[in-house]
Amino acid sequence: MKNQFTRRNFIRTAAASSVALGWLGARQAPRGFAAEADKPALLGGTPVHRSGWTQWPQWREAWEANILKVYRSRSWFRGAGGEVANFEQQYAKLLGARKCLATSSGTTALLVSLQVMDVNAGDEVIVSPYTFIATYNAILAHHALPVFADTDPATLTLDPASIESRITERTRAIMPVHIYGMPCEMDAILAIGRKHKLAVIEDACQAWLAEYHGQKCGTLGDVGCFSFQQSKHIPSGEGGAITSMSETLIDRCNSYHNCGRAVGTNQGSGSFTRGLNYRMTQPQAMMLQQQLDKLVKETEIRQANADYLSANLGKIPGIIPVRLPRNSRAVWHLYPFRYDATQFNGLSLARFSQAVSAEGVPCGPVYREQYYDGLLDEAIASRGFQRLWSADRLRAYRESFKELKGNKQVCETTVAMTQNMLLGDRASVDDILEAIRKVQKHSAALAKAG
Ligand SMILES: Cc1ncc(COP(=O)(O)O)c(C=O)c1O
Question: In what order do the strands lie in the sheet with 414-418?
Answer without folding.
Answer: 319-321, 334-339, 414-418
